[in-house]
UniProtKB/TrEMBL annotation:
Domain of life of the source: Eukaryota
Endpoints of the signal sequence: none
Keyword Cell membrane belongs to the record: no
Entry's Gene Ontology molecular function annotations: transmembrane transporter activity
PANTHER family in alphabetical order: EG:BACR7A4.13 PROTEIN-RELATED, SYNAPTIC VESICLE GLYCOPROTEIN 2
Composition bias, Basic and acidic residues: 251-265
Protein name stated in the entry: GM26155
Segments traversing the membrane: 26-49, 69-89, 96-115, 121-143, 155-176, 196-215, 424-445, 452-475, 481-501
Keyword Membrane: yes
Record keywords: Membrane, Transmembrane, Transmembrane helix, Transport
Region (Disordered): 251-275
Amino acid sequence: MANRARDNADEPADFETAIAECGFGLFNVFILCSAVPCLTAMVFSASALSYVMPSAECDLDLSIVDKGMLHAVTYAGMIISAVPWGFIADTIGRRPVLISGGWLDGFFVLCASLSQNTAQLMAFKFFDGLIICGPFAVVVSYLAEFHGKKHRPYIMLFVGLCVSIGSMILPLLSYVLLPVPILFTVSSMKFRTWQVFLAVSSAPSLLSGFLHIFLPESPKFLMSQGNYKKALDSLQRIYKLNKRKSKESYPIKHLTDPTPDRSDDIDGTGRPSTLQERFSRAKSKFIDGFKQLKPMFSSPYLAISLQVYCLHFCQIMCVNSVRLWLPQIFATMNAMDTLGANDTSMCAVLEHNANAKSMDEEEKRVECALVGRRSLVMGFQDLSWNWSGRFSDHFSLNEIPSGLESHTDLYFVKTSLVTMMVSAVYLTMMGICATTIIGMSVVIFPTLMRTMVLLLIMTFGRLGSVSGNMLLPVFMQLSCLAPFLWLCSLMSIAFLFSLFLKVDDEQSLN
């Protein structure tokens, strides 16, 4: 391919040929390293409050409903911003989203660490979710658009690995920081251990925004915008770093793409585009995007998509209703055991969390000190959740009964060790199911609607997270059995949906 490109240097080359000429080298290593903090930041945003909640409730006097709301607000921000971020990334570019999104998210996480009451913490975590949704969604496309066919299949594996690493780093940080007694005052503001932990968790977002300053815009995006001059310059930079040669020696001199060349207008070497023209192009793209939704509301895709949305909604509601509350449950179990409680069953723990808004000083001290120890266990469970997707091809949605059985077993456990073992099995089984849904959807839906469908699937999953974390405290206050019956009902509904979802996973992509 390289020799052919050099022999025909004056002929335009498509993106795949151009990126293949750049090879794989130092630039690719740098862009992969730059993606790690961005992917890690998403894990931190979604899960950090799970680890600090038992400590924060000691200082903010949180009720069980407050805890559910705090878990839900981050996902609420993600839901609201999903489509706008996608539009911005496809209109303005990937690089600006990664830079500005990283800095903004780090800023709001730092603001959350300065919170002195529940309302402030809730507001800043909402903005955290609102912002982090953009960089996380864009970074996957950004990585894929800098790699050719040979290396692109490994991008999703790399993304899964980074998310798993983030899932391990977060509990390790909590294990190190949260048991350490920290208290200092600045003016009238008090800062404690959990606030320091949140401040440290802003580092991946800030680092991501900083590292992407040194990276070029995606050449594929620039070509789709008709800006071939900047696309060629971006490819030459990659070639220079990977091949250790001058930019001028890059064998491809012209690029081709279905989009007409508008380099002169964009770069200002010709007549620059007016504000009205840029707005008109953005409006046209926005309308075209909605036109792509039309087939989703017709047969056969309407029925299939509704099944997939409902199935994923139920799955993620069950998973995150349990996963995000497990650190709190572990901390309560250990505190009750340390204080000599006779009954440390799941029912006793739920009753304790539901009815004991304020505890005596000794119980508060023990719970706040012990939360970090069990949080490390949660990291291994998150690891099983993320890596379960690597093996989803060997399973099917009928793993849901196994998850249902594991969830039912949680009702009968009496020790934190058994709780950890049963919940790990439950999270792994449900992780396989959720990942299988994503993989199946890629095959089921055609290219023009595939991205939007995947975006909507993730949105319904986040809606499930919000709903689950708002409803679970209500059921916990009703009785011990109520939350288990509710979650078992949801999983049974998911199982019924899976029975009617038939797909040939060996079919060609549409």
